[in-house]
Amino acid sequence: MTVPGTTTAAATAPKAKSGLPTAADGSNLGACANGNCEVQVDGPTTIPVPGMPLIGGKVQIQQISSMAVTAAASVFGFPASSTAPSGGTMFLNGLTIKVVAVQGSSAVLRLST
């Protein structure tokens, strides 16, 4: 029974222990194999994306700060990088990286093709 004026857990957006929204795929980087996932990364991380050969099959999250996330990939053998703030979007040769949220050295990222 719900008491008027209260909210249930289902009515609020779930938060991870870090205070970030819960990523749909958690920290399972393998979910990004086809270039479509939502994951939490903590610090510099290499995300394998074998389904995206035009970016060398991986994206390197180089830096996460309270202000932005920097990602890099090899595009046709040449280095490419991009930086976006929380709520911003990066584009790396067919791969879109949405920075859902950032807190400290952790971020929730949504990758899509």
Word description of this protein:
This protein has strands at 37-42, 45-48, 58-64, 68-75, 78-85, 89-92, 95-103, 106-112. With 113 residues, it is mostly beta strands. It has one domain (23-112). The strands form two sheets. A four-stranded antiparallel β-sheet has the order 1-8-7-6, with no helix packed on it. The chain has a four-stranded antiparallel β-sheet with strand order 2-3-4-5, with no helix packed on it. Mean pLDDT is 87; it is low at 6-13.
Question: Which terms summarize this structure?
Answer:
113 residues; mainly beta; 4-stranded antiparallel beta sheet
Topology:
Layout: E1 37-42, E2 45-48, E3 58-64, E4 68-75, E5 78-85, E6 89-92, E7 95-103, E8 106-112
Antiparallel strand pairs: 1-8, 2-3, 3-4, 4-5, 6-7, 7-8
Q: Helical region count?
A: 0
Extract low-pLDDT stretches: 6-13
Please tell me the overall pLDDT: 87
Radius of gyration (Å): 16 Å
Order of helices and strands: EEEEEEEE
Find the count of extended strands (DSSP E, 2+ residues): 8
